[in-house]
Amino acid sequence: xxxxxxxxxxxxxxxxxxxxxxxxxxxxxxxxxxxxxxxxxxxxxxxxxxxxxxxxxxxxxxxxxxxxxxxxxxxxxxxxxxxxxxxxxxxxxxxxxxxxxxxxxxxxxxxxxxxxxxxxxxxxxxxxxxxxxxxxxxxxxxxxxxxxxxxxxxxxxxxxxxxxxxxxxxxxxxxxxxxxxxxxxxxxxxxxxxxxxxxxxxxxxxxxxxxxxxxxxxxxxxxxxxxxxxxxxxxxxxxxxxxxxxxxxxxxxxxxxxxxxxxxxxxxxxxxxxxxxxxxxxxxxxxxxxxxxxxxxxxxxxxxxxxxxxxxxxxxxxxxxxxxxxxxxxxxxxxxxxx
Amino acid sequence: xxxxxxxxxxxxxxxxxxxxxxxxxxxxxxxxxxxxxxxxxxxxxxxxxxxxxxxxxxxxxxxxxxxxxxxxxxxxxxxxxxxxxxxxxxxxxxxxxxxxxxxxxxxxxxxxxxxxxxxxxxxxxxxxxxxxxxxxxxxxxxxxxxxxxxxxxxxxxxxxxxxxxxxxxxxxxxxxxxxxxxxxxxxxxxxxxxxxxxxxxxxxxxxxxxxxxxxxxxxxxxxxxxxxxxxxxxxxxxxxxxxxxxxxxxxxxxxxxxxxxxxxxxxxxxxxxxxxxxxxxxxxxxxxxxxxxxxxxxxxxxxxxxxxxxxxxxxxxxxxxxxxxxxxxxxxxxxxxxx
Lengths: 339, 339
Hints:
Two copies of one chain form a homodimer. The first copy, chain A, is an alpha/beta fold.
């Protein structure tokens, strides 16, 4: 597969391309499909719906990789935390206390997630042989912030305060998420995914004093545990907003590739990472949504910057729901050498 | 002054210290004073109140620098934009359209800001000779995000979309803010400030394609214009979340010093910056609020990391309103060699 060749650092005939959240609300067929489940988690846990949502963007755009349709918050849900997705507001969770953390157990999580693995099997069976299937999970810090704060956020002051004031409970929480995530990723591989991505979407908010404990070490253990079982499955890390620690993240965790958000200068990233690390991403999703000419110019600049180096074309963050489909078509044509 | 010596790169007997938002809600005397004005902007524009708020933390803790009590949003207010501060919600502004931007004029801004300069004169007259007075402004991108979004935020998608879809209006907006900011900072110097800090609190959200236009170039022009009038006034930049671009920011803008938030590894920062740039900040405000032992340990680690290099002790972000005063007392004692 072109996608796996690029992740292996091989030079490829063209740059592979997929888009974060490519299965999602910018597609009318996704919006129609979504009405068939009463809530977002049911949608994720109904294999036929998750399979169809995953395949929709592949049929339209022939991306080089499909990504399992799911959510990083299936892990807290599988651990027994009450998780809801509220329209126009995002996820709402029952915030965990130190006592509640003691009661969390990853033991039953896998059976709760059985429909996800059924979806993976169905997707892999339906996908063309040349299309890679990406499985994924949230990294422990990012999942922990949702569990502590009870919702999304950005500076995660409550999580930082929890870590400072209740260090044992915080360590326990990270450990439970880590254990559940390892089982979850290995089960995704057993069901047929070819690649994994670890989303540390809130790496930006981790204070320096916690970076080792909350980012580098748990991610390194997850990568090592997965590699021990499946040495040939490449792992892409996405430590969004990791800043000056980008190279340290890659060296400390052992990920095979690293996804760059739109704030990163790709030349600087290449300089600090060295030529052997595959990079991914970097195009501003706002450009693709609102300024197609600027998006195509920026895409060409990324392709030129990454020329001769392994790079997977992608956005710096998920595709925006308002993105016109024609903009995606133009982008894919550009990547395939047609524009 | 110890503070200016450190900014000049001289070795000093001890590390100077101040705290962002040191004049603020964690102080009972501030909360009492605040009731004397009907709203937050009136408070900022009443010289006696702004003077007293600025001096309160100096009397308590003998910080090495006072910072003018004001807000970065006095610039949009002075440009004629409707700015309100809503309790427990933060600032609310009338979002600017491309047409409204054409109507903005920095010409009358300075006279609107006369009470700020009166406050500066009063503060400088009242401060001990060894205490530096810091003036400040928001950097253009950060101020522009509030004017475009109408409120705070973090990913500033609306601002990025505005820049992509209406590049001329966006450039005009940055130019108006830049011009008003230059006038404002020079007038602060004329009134008696000894140091300036430029808060680019949302540098994190600037996509790579806009960094030159929205961060490096306007900041460089502001620094150059201020230095042309007042070559001896040091300027501290605070490009919060600038990530891999930290060294580029310092090189491109000409600031004398750079403030580091709590996510930055100070050793890595020193490595990329070189030894001649004064650094500031880095202590997680959450530790000072919630975990005093961890805060003191972290403060000692920062002091050790910066030993032999010019560093101004500070937090990575503003002091939190819930911070106990005794924690600040312990921190100051530590910095003064008493603990």
